[in-house]
Amino acid sequence: MYLYAAFLTAKKGGALYMKQHFLSFEPTTSLYEQAIHPYKKWTEYTDMSPLIEIDGKDYRLIRVAGKIFKSATKNIFLCDPTGDIIEDRQLHRKGLSVYYLLNKLNAKKEELISSKDETVTLGLKRMYKGFKELAESLCDELTEAENIAMREQIDYFEKSINLSVNIEEEAEVLLSFIEQLEDNKIDRLTVSLIDQWNHHLFQWERNNIRMELLTIENGTTIRPAIKEIVYNASNFAKFPDQDFHEIITEYFDGIDVIEEDYLENGKRDWEQMVAIGPNKGEFHLETYLKEAWEGAYIKSISENHQNEVLEELLKYHENKY
Predict the structure, then answer these.
(1) Rounded CA separation 148/167 (Å)
(2) CA-to-CA distance for 165 and 265, rounded, in angstroms?
(3) CA-closest candidate to residue 99, choices 312, 321, 318, 319
(4) Cα(51)–Cα(98) distance, rounded to whole angstroms?
(5) Considering only CA atoms, which of 208, 218, 285, 287 is closest in space to residue 255?
(6) How far apart are CA 57 and CA 80, in angstroms?
C-alpha cells in the first residue's frame, strides 16, 4: 500500500518547493496583482486559481513563485473577489485544501493514465479463464483440499478483475477532470465539484489498495498450495495449452515480488498509524488486512498527512506575510 501524498514540500532557500505545476492556474489579473505586489520580488511572478467556493462565498488563491524555477512556490495568498487578502486562518486553510487536491490530482496523472490501460484487466481475465479450464481438467486428479484451493484461486481472480475494472473507470473519470482543469474549462470550483473529485479519488485509491490487499492475502493463504499444483510435473499435460504453464510461472515469479513490496508498504503505513494513535499496537497481518480493506485506515493516514502539509503551509505563510 502506498500513501497518496500530493505535496512533496521542503524548505530550500526560503521557498516551499512543490513537485508539480498547479492545475487551472492562470496569470494574475491587475486587481489581484496589485493586492499581492507588496509581497513579491522582481524575481518572482504570480498566478491565480479559478474562483473557489468557500462557505458560500467566492475566493481565489494567489501563488507567488520564482520566475526561473516556476515550481518553486514562495507563498500562497487567499483573496476575495475585490482583491482583499484574507487573514482568517480557517478560511485560508480551506482554500489551501483545494490547492492540495489540485496538486494531488496532477501528481497522480501518470498513475491514472496507467490505471486506465486495460492491460491488467485483460491479463487477469486470461488467468481466470485458464485457471477455470485447468481446475476442470484436474478435478479428478486433485484432493478435496486442492480442489478447494483451485476454486479459491479462481475466486481471487474474479474479485481482482472486478476491482481492476473499477480502477479503470475511476481513473477515466479523474483524467476527464484533469483534462478540463488543464484546458481551463472550469472557471469556478464549487463545493459540490470538489466533493465529487475527492469522492472519485478516494474510490480509485481504495480499490488500488484493495487490489494490493487481495494479493497479500492470496500469497499468505492460497497461492503456496496452487504453486505446488502448478509445478507438479504430472499435472503439466492437463494444462489448457502449453503456453499457459509458462504464463502462470512468470505470473507467480512477478506476483511474489510485488506482494513483498505491498507488505513492506503496509508495515510502513501501520507505523504511521501508530504515530497518530500510539494505542494501535504492533503490526498484525490479519488486523491490518481487515482495517485497510474498510478504507477508514488509509483515509486517516491521508487526512493526517494533509493536515501536516496545510499547517506547514499556513505557518510558512504567516511567518512571511
Answers:
(1) 29
(2) 24
(3) 312
(4) 11
(5) 218
(6) 8
- The closest of 306, 35, 313, 26 to 187, measured between CA atoms, is 26
**How far is it, in rounded angstroms, from Cα 92 to Cα 78?**
6
Kind and range of the H or E run holding 63: strand 57-66
Residue 297: strand, helix, or coil: helix
**Which 8-state DSSP code applies to residue 118?**
T
- With beta carbons less than 8 A apart as the criterion, state whether 121 and 165 touch: yes
Q: pTM higher than 0.70, yes or no?
A: yes
Torsions phi, psi for 77 (to 5 deg): -115, 155
Q: What is the mean pLDDT of each run of 10 residues along the chain (321 residues)?
A: 31 38 83 90 89 96 78 84 94 96 93 93 94 94 95 97 97 96 93 96 94 95 94 87 86 92 90 81 88 84 88 84 66
